Fold this protein.
Amino acid sequence: MNINSQKAFFLAILISTIFKPLICKAQLQVIANGNVGIGTTSPGTALDVQIGTSPSIRAQGSSNPYLQVVSTNGALITKCQSVATVGGYVGTQSNHNLFLCTDNEPSITILANGGNPGTVGIANTAPNTSYALDVAGDINSSTHLRASGVILTSDRKFKTNIVPIPNAMAIIKQLKPSSYYWDSINAYGMHFENQKQYGLISQDVEKVLPELIYNSIKLATHDSAGNVLTQAVSYKGLNYNAFIPILIKGLQEQQVIIERLDSINKALQSQVTTCCNSQQGQGTTSVTGDNLNNTNATAGNSSAILYQNIPNPFSQQTSIGYSIPTSAQSASIIIFDLQGKLIKTVSVFNFGTGSIRINGSELAPGMYVYSLLVDGKIIDSKRMILTQ
């Protein structure tokens, strides 16, 4: 081998040693259309980075490093930055909206607001800028939702088949208000508080007002290995707001009864006063408005008592019991209809404990009010019902 051949051989070995790491495998690939690939030889975009499970792109610096995406007109569209004083953020500048997407569809929309906090829309690409949060759909929470006020949509234009609530008191009487504690240690991951609660049980309400019950499902949760952390559960919810109109109607119904009884009481007062005044010549003391409402009034040295009639309601005959002190001067049981008309007066001569009988044939079917009158004073009044 001559001297020139030896030089060429050693030069080839030197070149192979120096450039071997570069020609073994290309880490940066630029193809003909200008696309750049890192970790791939066939980049599909202007910059295509494929580095397995390690972080693909990292911006690192001594003062607030960031990565930004700029549109063709130079406006900054997206910016990811680490800010030492507040942490990191992902956002936009130049008054652009921000969309967080799943399956190429926006799931969360944040509207730009000229440097001010923007409106957030969830499942809503065009949230109403009158609100800070505009959600198109139901919101589920296993803990409290806190607000200084809640406005419920109630415009007539959105309602059909509007019908007054009939007999609200009958509904209210079937409800079973309870006190209870939440099961704060449960297998479903429901975040309940442990303070004493007051409310209704959905299963009880469902028997009375099934339209107020809503069925929900909480999905199971898993760890990174797929192990179940909390079980799935189906459960019932209750529309408590619907009880407001029912309670209002119940109060209105009660007020009608109160006003009717007040009217009956006034009529009784007038009838008793007239009745007793007409007997003054027979030694009976007259009744004034001041003593008509004195239930449990005393006659003599001890109290007189009027008992509820038995049976009640009745169809043929009923018995009204009483207890009248022997020191009383006069006593009678008077019966009125609901219009305040005096129907029957039964004089009582046997003082002490006793009773009188009322025959159903003497009265028309309906509700009546009867009172015990002792020495010109109304002792008590009760109601009795005569059926067909």
About this structure: DSSP finds five helices and 25 strands in the chain. Confidence is low (pLDDT under 50) at residues 279-301.
